[in-house]
Amino acid sequence: MEPTHKPLDVNAQIQAMSDQINRLRMMGNLGQSFGGLRDMYEVLGYKRNVGADDYFGVYRRQDIASRIIRAFPQATWRGNPIISDGPEKTDTSFQRDVNKLDKKLSLWSYCERADRLASIGRYGLLILGVNDGAKMSEPLVNASELHWLKAIKEQNGEISTWNQDPSSQNFGKPVLYNVTFGSSENQSSFSVTQQVHASRVIHIAEFLEEDEVYGVPRLESVFNRLQDLEKVIGGSGEMFWLGARNGLKFIADKEASFSDDERSRLEQMAEDYQHSLRRTLTGKGLSIDSIGTDVASPAAHVDALLDLIAGAVGIPKRILVGSEAGQLASSQDETNWISRIEERRMNFAEPTIIRQLLNRLVSLGVIAAPSTPEYGIDWNHDDGLSEVDRATVGNLRAQSLAAYSNSIGASLVVPETEFREKWLGLEPVPEGGFDEELPELDETDEEPLSANQLHIVKNVEHIHEHREPKAQPMTEFERELLSKL
Q: For residue 175, what are the CA distances in angstroms to 132, 182, 195, 196, 268?
C-alpha cells in the first residue's frame, strides 16, 4: 500500500503558503537587470526555485556536489568524540553508558549520517526509537532503553504542526513531523509514514538565520556554478564525441550523375563509416575530403569554476578535488582545513548534535546523568598527515627543543611549561610535576651514547644544576629531552 502523508493543520498550511510566496517573490527577482529587460537566469538556463529534491538529486548524481556534501560531515566525525565526566575525567556511569550505546547502535555513525542529510536540505532529523510503549505521535516522557536510531532527510520529515504559544520555550518550533520510514526512492522496499512528536526527534540544521528550524542548504550558494560545471564538462564530452573523428565531404564530378539506388548506397556507406562498421569508401564520379575539427580544452574553464566553488563552500580546492599536483601551499591548505573542522566540531557538532542527543537521553533515563552538566567532549584528533608529514613535524619539534635547551636563559623569556605546550604541542605538566630522577649513565653499556645523545644529556644536566631549589625533581621538559635518546 502506497504511504500517504496526513494533511497539515490549517495554521501549518497558512504558514507554508506564506513561506512559499515569500520565497517565490525573492527568487523571481534573481537575475533581473535593466529593469527586467534582461533576465540572466533565463538566458543561462538557471533554475530559480530550487528545493530539497533538486539538492538531493545533484548530491546523488553530480561528483563535485557529492564531494561538497560529504566532506564536512566525514571530516567532522572522522575522529569519534570521547565523552569525559568530572574534573578528573574518571570512568563514570555516564561515560560507560555512552560507550555501551555507541558499541550497540554505532551512535556516532548515525550522527554523521544525520549531519550529512541535514546539509543537503534545510534540516535533517535523528529519530529516537525507545521502549516507552507509547505511539510515535505522543510526547516522549521517559524510557529505559534506546532500541534504534533513524537518520531522515528533509523530504521524508515534513513539519506538520508548529508550537504557536509565545509563552512556551519551544515557541516557533515543530511539534509534529510526518516522517517516512524506509526508502522513499525504492518502492519495493519497506516504507511507512507516521506522525512523530518532536520530543522523539533531534532536529539538526546548520547555517541558521531567522529561526531555529530552517538552515541554508550547503549547495544553495553554488547551485548555479554546479550547473555551469555540468555544461562545461558535458559540452566538452559532446564536443570530443563529435569532433574526435574528422567529418567527410563528398564532392561529385561535374559530369557525374547518380541514380536513386547509387545515392542510397553512398549514404549507407557513409553511415557505416561513421559508426565504425566499415573503414573504406568506394564510388565513381566523386572525391572524398576530410573536414578538420577543433576540440578545445575545458581545463581553464573547469579550473575557474572549481576556484569559485571551493571558495564559496569553504573547502580548499586541493582537498575538494583530491589532488596535490602543482599545489605548493598544500600544507597550509591542510592546516586551514583542519582548523575549519575543529571550529565546526566546537560550534556545530557538539552543541547541535552531541549535547542535544546526550542531554535528551539523560532526561529520559536511557543513560545515567553526568556528574556535571558541563561534561567534556574531546575528539580522537586525526590530523590527516602522511607519515612523511609527521616525520617532518617531529624533526622540526626536535630541532626547536634542541635550540631551546641549548640557549642559556631561554626559560626566562619563555617558561618551560609554555614552550612545552605551545611549541612542542605536548600535554600540560600534571600538578606536582614528575618524580623521576635523572638517569645515570652506564659506562659499561655495550652501546655507548652517540655524540648527539651526550649533547642532550649535558643540556639536561646543565638545566638541572642551575635550577633552584636544587632538590626540585626533574621536570617533564627534561624528561622530553631524555626521551630523544
A: 19, 22, 10, 9, 68
